[in-house]
């Protein structure tokens, strides 16, 4: 059972979250993480990055973790643009009933993590996906001084260029949660 970890990242922070989400997915028996990136609009790509996403990746995976940097309090336009290319899947209801979670990286603590996560959730709801956040039973959620929200995983990059321990744990928990639910629905 493949779980798609789909992300856009220009300076590597959202990609770091994607790798933690993948580790969480792979903690779940029978689940494999499929890491894919959304291409940069200017065509500049890392030579050794994850493969570029195709629509078939979405079609084939049993769950989705979607990540974007926060740009002006919302998802990056490249992510929105990619989602607009998924209208064929929407029309045929191909993602309906599959679990999904979201993650983001901001520069600053109050720079719009929750608004970005919510902006990403909206189109996934239109697709009929089952949105899962991070429940407060996950202990790091109550005491994190960095990223991590009930709406999804996050990272605050300016003060802490590397992911904090809480950010790593919460992102892995989200990955494991999506994979676990996908397995139960399968
Ligand atoms: C066009 C643009 C808009 C941004 N807007 C915000 C913002 O609204 N709030 C914030 O905290 N950081 C903002 N940032 C900073 C990025 O969210 C932050 O550097 C993020 O970690 C980048 O992720 P990446 O390394 O995956 O590309 C912005 C950066 C750019 C380039």
UniProtKB/TrEMBL annotation:
Q: What is its EC number?
A: 1.6.5.2
Protein name as it appears in the record: NAD(P)H:quinone oxidoreductase
Q: Where is this region: Disordered?
A: 141-165
PANTHER family linked: FLAVODOXIN-RELATED PROTEIN WRBA-RELATED, FLAVOPROTEIN-LIKE PROTEIN YCP4-RELATED
Q: Which residues form the Flavodoxin-like domain?
A: 3-179
Annotated Gene Ontology MF terms? NAD(P)H dehydrogenase (quinone) activity
UniProt keywords (A-Z) are: Flavoprotein, FMN, Oxidoreductase
Q: Which NCBIfam families match?
A: flav_wrbA (TIGR01755), PRK03767.1 (NF002999)
Keyword Flavoprotein applies:
yes
Record family assignment: Belongs to the WrbA family.
UniProt keyword Flavoprotein, yes or no: yes
Pfam families the record matches: FMN_red
InterPro entries the UniProt entry points to: Flavodoxin/NO_synth, Flavoprotein-like_sf, Flavoprotein_WrbA-like, FMN_Rdtase-like_dom
Q: Which organism is it from?
A: Guyparkeria halophila
């Amino acid at each position: 059972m493949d779980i798609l970890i789909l992300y856009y990242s220009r300076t590597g922070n959202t990609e770091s979250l994607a790798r933690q989400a993948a580790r969480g997915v792979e903690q779940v028996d029978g689940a494999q993480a499929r890491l894919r990136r959304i291409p940069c609009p200017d065509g500049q790509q890392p030579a050794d990055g994850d493969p570029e996403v195709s629509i078939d990746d979405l079609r084939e995976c049993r769950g989705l973790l979607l990540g974007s940097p926060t740009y002006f309090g919302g998802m990056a336009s490249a992510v929105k643009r990619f989602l607009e290319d998924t209208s064929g899947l929407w029309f045929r209801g191909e993602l309906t009933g599959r679990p999904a979670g979201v993650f983001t990286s901001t520069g600053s603590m109050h720079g719009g993590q929750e608004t970005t996560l919510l902006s990403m959730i909206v189109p996934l709801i239109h697709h009929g996906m089952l949105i899962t956040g991070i429940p407060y039973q996950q202990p790091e959620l109550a005491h994190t001084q960095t990223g991590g929200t009930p709406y999804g995983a996050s990272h605050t990059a300016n003060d802490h260029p590397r992911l904090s321990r809480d950010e790593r744990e919460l992102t892995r928990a989200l990955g494991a949660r999506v994979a676990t639910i996908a397995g139960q629905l399968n």
